[in-house]
Amino acid sequence: MLKIPPIANTRHVSGKCTETHVRKETTEKMNIDKSKILDNICYTELVYERINKKLKTNNSKPEIEKKLLEILKQTSKENFEKKGKNFYATNIENNIIVTINSNTFRIITVDRIVKK
């Protein structure tokens, strides 16, 4: 009988093989092309509502786009970081973090920075 060694990152539970996901949260700050992000940002229809809800505003689509572009331009390159598949742009002056998909450059959400 052929004996097959266990696959890395798997464990057996009750006779079933289940994959365990060990996620390493790596943060990259070195190779972020801020100008590429600014040139390619885009939005979905739903994100406008999400932004207004999270920021407790009632801005139009053009107002949101203009304001976010201004904020991202103001944000220093050192405050852009990549974690997993997203970029996070932290703007202290405006008290927000903008989450951007690193593959599509689509704005995912905007969150207020919670001060502790």
Count of domains: 1
Strand content: 25-35%
Mean pLDDT metric? 82
**Rg (CA only):** 20 Å
Low confidence ranges: 1-25
Query: Based on DSSP secondary structure assignment, what is the total number of beta strands?
Result: 7
Largest sheet: number of strands, sense, barrel closure: 5 strands, antiparallel
* Class by SSE composition: alpha+beta
| Helix/strand order, N-terminal first | EEEHHHEEEE
Distance between the termini: 60 Å
Structure description:
With 116 residues, the chain is of the alpha+beta class. The protein has helices at 34-40, 45-55, 61-74, and strands at 10-13, 16-19, 27-28, 80-83, 86-91, 96-101, 107-112. The protein has one domain (25-112). The protein is built from three helices and seven strands, in the order E-E-E-H-H-H-E-E-E-E. A five-stranded antiparallel beta sheet has the order 3-4-5-6-7. A hairpin with a 2-residue loop joins strand 4 and strand 5. The radius of gyration is 20 Å and the shape is globular. Residues 1-25 have low confidence and may be disordered.
